[in-house]
Write a structure and sequence with these properties.
The complex is a heterodimer of chains A (188) and B (191). Chain A contains eight helices and no strands. Chain A has 188 residues and is an all-alpha fold. In chain A, helix 2 runs antiparallel to helix 4. In chain A, 36% of the residues are buried. Chain B is mainly α and 191 residues long. Chain B has two domains: 78 residues; 107 residues, no CATH class. Chain B is globular. The model of chain B has no long low-confidence stretch (mean pLDDT 89). The chains are: A mainly alpha (188), B mainly alpha (191). At the A-B interface, helix 6, helix 7 and helix 8 of A face helix 4, helix 5, helix 6 and helix 7 of B.
Chain lengths: 188, 191
């Protein structure tokens, strides 16, 4: 089930992004074909999971990942939602932090065997989920910054205020999911 | 023993800063005397904790905290080393490392001893690294909100400055996180 889902979703996205890449390359739209090319790579990323012995993620996480790719790459960058709707960027940063928090819970379960989980404090889970979500926001900003230094020059054009609002949205989303996971530690 | 050392070192720092504050105040260098007063407050935190609470101290953290205070407040602000350009980045690197050490200390406190042997080194690595990054981001959030609310210019260097700081924080955290992960792996193999 899981393998089939990953194969179907990944290949559908790869085909879709390749199509967009060729279309915008022929049109000479540099910023859009770059996004589509990156899209091909990140769509292929879940295929790596197929080679792992036991994949720590569950189906909702895989599906959310592709929803996020669609919202960010296609709606956000290619259809210019990032430019037309001010709330689009911050909403995505907020929900992405929640998503990474859920991934953090999955990793926590993977790295800490069930028989010793009772010896791990809820505060630990809270801190781990929060830090991981914020760390992911930061990695994203570093990626944008390095991208601007080398190729694109547009991702952080909002300047410092924009970067800080993105990080704050990441912190808010991370905090929300961290409180949830800390409070429901026995059940997550 | 630890407690006495903490009292001695932070006491020395507080006295040193008090002398500087008084000296610069008399000479009319109001910025430097304000920094020195901030130094008294920061140095007083471990001092008061050691005097009035029964907290168990983690010596490496307290010492690196004081070294960081000397580097940032005395050398950086009062002696003007922040003007050198690379000093700010270097201090962020150091603070990333200190935060990572604090993350390890927290991890050891929040996890039961018996559980420690079965937890994957990857968890230690990821937690230490992201904890340092969280600290770095919270610091920039603090600077940003001071700028917005009180019209200060802590982030005057703009986006490039903010990003360089954050990358330095992450690099410091990464160095310690790799060390912590390897250390855990060796421990598990032995035990």
């Amino acid at each position: 089930m899981m393998r089939k889902l990953i194969i179907i979703l990944s290949s559908a996205f790869i085909i879709f992004m390749t199509f967009l890449f060729i279309y915008y390359l022929l049109k000479g739209d540099t910023s859009r074909w770059q996004v589509a090319l990156g899209g091909v790579l990140v769509s292929a990323l879940p295929l790596v999971l197929l080679r792992m012995k036991n994949n720590p993620f569950n189906i909702p996480i895989i599906i959310s990942y592709f929803i996020f790719l669609f919202c960010s790459l296609f709606l956000g960058s290619i259809s210019s939602f990032y430019l037309h709707y001010k709330w689009w960027d911050s909403t995505l940063h907020f929900s992405k932090a929640i998503f990474i928090g859920v991934v953090g819970i999955a990793l926590y379960k993977r790295f800490i065997p069930e028989n010793v989980r009772s010896g791990v404090s809820a505060a630990m889970l809270f801190l781990f989920v929060l830090s991981l979500a914020v760390f992911s926001s930061l990695i994203w900003e570093i990626y944008e910054y390095l991208g601007d230094l080398t190729f694109t020059h547009t991702m952080q054009r909002g300047g410092n205020t924009d970067t800080m609002y993105d990080l704050l949205c990441g912190c808010a989303g991370g905090l929300l999911i961290a409180i949830y996971s800390g409070a429901r530690k026995q059940k997550v | 023993m630890n407690r006495k050392l903490v009292i001695l070192l932070s006491g020395l720092y507080v006295v040193f800063m008090a002398i500087l504050a008084f000296y610069y105040y008399k000479n009319g260098a109001s910025f430097k005397s304000t920094v020195a007063i901030g130094g008294i407050v920061c140095g007083a935190v471990p001092l008061l904790l050691a005097l009035f609470t029964k907290l168990q101290f983690n010596l490496p953290i307290v010492i690196s905290y004081l070294i960081f205070l000397v580097g940032s407040q005395y050398l950086g602000s009062i002696r003007g080393w922040y003007g050198l350009g690379w000093w700010d980045t270097f201090m962020h690197f150091v603070s990333g490392a200190i935060l990572a050490f604090s993350g390890i200390a927290l991890y050891e406190r929040l996890i039961h001893r018996n559980a420690g042997d079965e937890i994957s080194p990857w968890f230690v690595f990821l937690f230490t690294l992201s904890f340092a990054a969280l600290g770095g981001v919270l610091w920039e959030v603090y600077e940003f909100s001071s700028d917005q609310l009180f019209d200060m210019t802590l982030q005057g260097g703009g986006n490039k400055d903010t990003m360089t700081d954050l990358i330095a924080d992450t690099a410091g955290g990464l160095a310690i996180a790799i060390w912590a992960g390897i250390r855990t792996k060796i421990k598990i193999k032995k035990g």
